[in-house]
Amino acid sequence: MRRLAPFDRLRQAADVSPMIFRVIRSVNRPFSGISALMRLRFKPYMSLAWDVAAAPMAFIGAMILRYGLGGYEITSHMWLEATLVLVPLSLVVFALFGLHRAVWRYVSMRDLVKILQATAIVVLFSYLALFAYNRLDTLPRTVPFINYILLVALLVGPRLLLRLRVEGGLGSLGLARRTRGEGVPVLLIGAGSGTELFLREVDRGTTSYHPVGILDESGKRVGRSIRGVPVMGGLDDMASVVAALEARHRRPQRAIVTKRELNPDLLHDLLERTEKIGLPLSRVPDMGALETGVGVNRVEVRQVQVEDLLGRPQKRLDRAAMQGLITGRRVLVTGAGGSIGSELVRQVAELGPSELALVDLSEFALYTIDMEVSERWPELRRHMTLADVRDAERMNGVIAGFAPDIVFHAAALKHVPLVEGNIEEGVLTNVIGTRNVADACRAHGVGVVVLISSDKAVNPANVMGATKRLAEAYAQALDIECARAGGAPRFVTVRFGNVLGSTGSVVPLFQRQLAAGGPLTVTHPEITRYFMTIREAVELVLAAAAHRGTGSGGAGGESTETGRIHVLDMGDPVRIQDLARMMIRLAGLRPDRDVEIAFTGLRPGEKLYEELLHNSETDDATAVEGVFLASPRAVDLAILRRALDELRAHAHARRTDRTLTLLKELVPEFKAELERSRSDAS
């Protein structure tokens, strides 16, 4: 409900006539405006006025403390002189240090250090000025020190009192919280700054949790306390600590990790420990918000995610190069509604392109990502285009009409069993679709074309992998020819493995199976895959594109990267069985007891493990951390074009046997892998 101004309430209560009310309101309006201005704009200056007034008050207080109240006659003659010196001096010094700009309720140690420094300067120079004026012969040497302490107290005191009030009064000092005992009892993991920040928010009442104890990973702070909560043991003592708390009717209902950086080995250990005692494991999501205290209205923990357990280190990326590639450019993304394509759209939009074109065959997927872009970046000019990359004429018209500077080609069929059962569709989309986009980009002067590939293209054992390898080969051949001709575009092919949470990936499947009560289906006990998050994968794609798109190799010549493939560092492969067990534990359940894991057998075209490099390829480092270069065999462009014409004709005519035979001839690794699989099976 809108708050009524005083004269609004008067009119409502007394039914003042409209004419009289307008007269009164016109008189009141200037004063209400001044009042609002005072509230909004004058707070910093009120703060500065208090600080300046505190300077002579501290001087007078120091004199009284030194001489007593009876010393008024001895010191009063200096009060006026000191005030005339201190007021302008403190005004200048405090303003230069910006003490008035700091919000009192969020006062920090940095603000306190500024106060100590500014106060020291004011006291020092004021006494030097007074000494030059009257030599201060009768002034005891202890007075400046008393003056300094009093001035610091007058400046710091009100700020700390307001901070104390904002943080919950005496409860923030641990005096009230111990008797309150409200909220969900939790056990905190970690005895560092993260725990202190979380306890601060508990005292402020921004969370519904009640910490009953702390476990210290290192064990060095056992027996001590943080904001009144005892550190009861190390990680090895978890079971005994929970038992002791349960004996006092204070058993925790959840364990919360408060460490800023989560070590995956630590998380695995904690999952096993908490599973044994039936304690769900969570973590504090945003430590940055807790540090500032700004914008935190409610602090809720979240479950530990699979991404936390993978523990992939943060890469140092050249953000300036990525910005230079995208900012002010016209960017087109095919497959914009898919998992990788939509994340590409988000990260590209953040980098400030001049215009963004979203291309997808799915009406709903295109609508969804366009709505997100319109809400998050309303000022960005964007174009929605329903188009099939398999339609060469349509793609030629789209790229000619939009005239992009950069194209990210993410449109593809990626689900191995589906492509295995629909061979022609996989060939037409992944191979011919890539050729259509690449040829249109070359015909219309696109500067950089980025092809999103897959680790399944290495020694492919399925049609999907073979089609992605053939798409790589076409982009390679075009990149070499364009470099020799000294023209555009540059073709950047980026190869990586599975991304967590992408459409058709195993994580959403496991989540659905968990929601249904299980079992979780795994094709083979030893099957492994590479994993990274969608955001990390797209960041590295952009970094590789920026490095290649603005890097070495100019017109009229080839660079050392021409025709090579960028491979993302995927870390160590993960057993799918282990991933399933992680997700069961994260749900607070026990593998093989609460939820079963069922092994269903390898699907058509599925390998036990994936590879990022062919045996003949080397992984040469690039300037981009987490991105390597591979050198697959290159195919002559003219020969490849004739072969693709034939492949397209077979696929369009739905001649499956001829299509598959030609695909094996064009990708010898595919044929060799199939023959090896047959020999292993026999």
Describe the structure.
With about 675 residues, the protein is an alpha/beta fold. The chain folds into four domains: about 30 residues, no CATH class; about 120 residues, no CATH class; about 140 residues, 3-Layer(aba) Sandwich (Rossmann fold); about 270 residues, Rossmann fold, CATH 3.40.50.720. It contains 25 helices and 22 strands. The strands form five sheets. Strands 10-9-8-11-12-13-18-22-21 form a nine-stranded mixed β-sheet, with helices on both faces. α16 runs parallel beside α18 and α19 crosses α24. About 40% of the residues are buried.
Summary?
The protein is of the alpha/beta class and 682 residues long. 52% of the residues lie in helices and 13% in strands. The protein folds into 4 domains: 6-35, no CATH class; 43-166, no CATH class; 170-304, 3-Layer(aba) Sandwich (Rossmann fold), CATH 3.40.50.720; 329-497 and 532-564 and 612-675, Rossmann fold, CATH 3.40.50.
